[in-house]
């Protein structure tokens, strides 16, 4: 098969990571994989190593309607069997372009219904998606959003995949040369600094925890909420204990070294960083929300409320005082995450694409 994926950028968050994993896996299975992207971002080595065909479309604005027709031209040159879009802006652009070009189109849903509460852009996306051959959600929460919009035969849940074996081989060396003390536990966060990830409550909980015990925290990532988190940490006088190193790549070595991975998201699809931390043998403490409960339980993770920083700090203190509980969650989580391999994800997409093409030929 010839598959054209369309995404705003090649690096950034979970969707970009999943596309890199999926593209490389499908290419290794003998498919011709193309990726069109708009941002002037660096190209991850995974694409080059897998022989994925890249098509940069540099532009000042994804909302320029001319981008639809530029992509139509690319579709007609590439002649893909399937077009798949990733993230809201490209769902609109690629969805329209694929429909104009007459090529089956798959939309990937990366988050839950809570992310699409009102607004003109989500409404336009949902309207265009009526013409999609399928919507693929990475979680039941994402599929819930489409339940009243598309019939069951045009919806599919395919969980995220991670390269488990590759992650387990990651070096223990420091990432980005971070100077981290080895005598106190490391608490790690990796992800975007946006309201949905709840970074303010996380920072406040860590500030309260500092009054109870010694630790160092590395909050890795970037986003609009990072400035306010930095201000909280600075005002508390903890800038040398709660570190904000920005985006760290690779982050797996830090995950292997951390004593606990912390995520207090208000809602999620299926978070890459949590899966990767589990694969690294790092116990995880996550918000007790349906998206986390879908693949975690009290035996594989520490599930906590996510709006009360004092309660989170108390739970962190109890957990860090119990090495046995940490080790048990780490082992159980590492065993659980083997169900989320990239190969399994690629096979599921391959089966979906074949079904779509068979139905397209029949119609």
What is the topology?
Blueprint: E1 2-7, H1 14-28, E2 32-37, H2 45-50, E3 53-56, H3 66-78, E4 82-86, H4 88-101, E5 105-109, H5 120-128, E6 134-137, H6 140-146, E7 155-157, H7 164-168, E8 186-190, H8 199-209, E9 216-220, H9 226-235, E10 242-246, H10 252-257, E11 260-263, H11 272-279, E12 284-287, H12 290-293, E13 302-304, H13 309-320, H14 323-336, H15 342-362
Helix pairs in contact: 1-15, 3-4, 4-5, 8-9, 8-13
Question: What can be said about this structure in brief?
Answer:
The chain is an alpha/beta fold. It has helices at 14-28, 45-50, 66-78, 88-101, 120-128, 140-146, 164-168, 199-209, 226-235, 252-257, 272-279, 290-293, 309-320, 323-336, 342-362; strands at residues 2-7, 32-37, 53-56, 82-86, 105-109, 134-137, 155-157, 186-190, 216-220, 242-246, 260-263, 284-287, 302-304. The chain has two domains: 2-161 and 341-362, Rossmann fold; 165-339, Glycogen Phosphorylase B (Rossmann fold, 3-Layer(aba) Sandwich).
